[in-house]
């Protein structure tokens, strides 16, 4: 994971589309090895590469505030008929310390 972006989500969407890494690579115009390293979180892909992968997956790359990230992931998981992840929304240390909730 680089810069807080979880590129393993591409794998989830790719698998939900019943697409191999090789097919995704072909559609996106990149190598299968590049797809593999991106999905493993070992690459920092350029915006053009991310856009090409999204186009190949018929998906969009969007920014989501961390406070609702967990809810958005659960929504996507339900859409992909995957078990929803356990846990609440993703929060940064700053949010946990400085944004009051019912426990503060």
UniProtKB/TrEMBL annotation:
Domain HTH cro/C1-type: 10-64
UniProt xrefs under InterPro entries: Cro/C1-type_HTH, Lambda_DNA-bd_dom_sf
GO terms for MF: DNA binding
Name under which the protein is recorded: Transcriptional regulator with XRE-family HTH domain
Species the sequence originates in: Aliirhizobium cellulosilyticum
Phylogenetic classification of the source organism: Bacteria, Pseudomonadati, Pseudomonadota, Alphaproteobacteria, Hyphomicrobiales
